[in-house]
Amino acid sequence: MKLKILIFSIFLSNTIYSQSVKDSLLKKDITILVEEMEFMYGYDQIMREYTIFKTFDKSETDRIENLPDSLRVMELENRKFVSDSISKLISRKYINPMDAEHTERLIAITKKYGFPSTERIRKYYKQDFADPEFNPLLILIHSPKKYWEELKELMLMEYQNGIINQCQYGYALWQFTGRKSFQPMLDNGFVMVEENGKTTLKSTCD
Q: Superkingdom of the source (predicted)?
């Protein structure tokens, strides 16, 4: 029994020390990392939005997203590419390859610094984000399938070490299991709720 306690104490001490080192590294390199990840996030979002809205103008995409449902559907219908081959070309040449690049880079960042959630970033970065919706987790949500097994293990470790919360882990796991069902999220901090006649997923994490 004493041996088990000793082993656990050593493991806990090593984990705390390792996390302390990662926090120090993150604090030291925070500005450069945020600038790099803001670029990755911005590229991820704007290229996908272009295939839907056919514009790089953020104010225009926001305007369309805020339209009533019926008007938004009409607007998007009018903005469709004449041929699906264009959106497929954009995905094949400009989105998918960079998804892989960004995933590999974020894996490397996570291994060195711990996962850079917005909550952790905010501890050391006091400037406004270029995009108020900036969230590094969304970069991994578009990770290619070939990285999923590695990411499952990596994000589980981040969750167990307290670097990400249960809901962040569940959301990531939903992607890494192919988005086949919401069960990974429901098992990890999300609940189904009825709001205005619609069933939605709601986070229970702070």
A: Bacteria
Angle at 180 between CA 175 and CA 182, to 5 degrees: 75
Output the six-digit token pair for 95: 């989105």
- Helix, strand, or coil here: 151? helix
Report the distance separating Cα 159 and Cα 103, nearest Å. 18
Structure tokens at 114: 């711990």
Count of CB atoms within 10 A of residue 41's CB? 22
pLDDT in tens, 118-167: 999 999 999 999 999 999 999 999 999 999 999 999 999 999 999 999 99
- DSSP for 179-203, please give it: TS-SHHHHTTTEEEEEETTEEEEEE
CA atoms of 4 and 118, how far apart (whole Å) = 36
Please report, for the chain, how many H helices and E strands are present, in that order.
10, 2
- What is residue 1's predicted lDDT score, i.e. its pLDDT? 59
Domain boundaries, the chain: 14-164, 167-206
User: Would you say 202 and 191 are in contact if contact means Cβ atoms under 8 Å apart?
Assistant: yes
pLDDT digits (tens, 9 = 90+) for 86-95: 999 999 999 9
Dist CA 106 CA 71 (whole Å):
38
Q: How much is the pTM? A: 0.84
What pLDDT was estimated at residue 198? 85
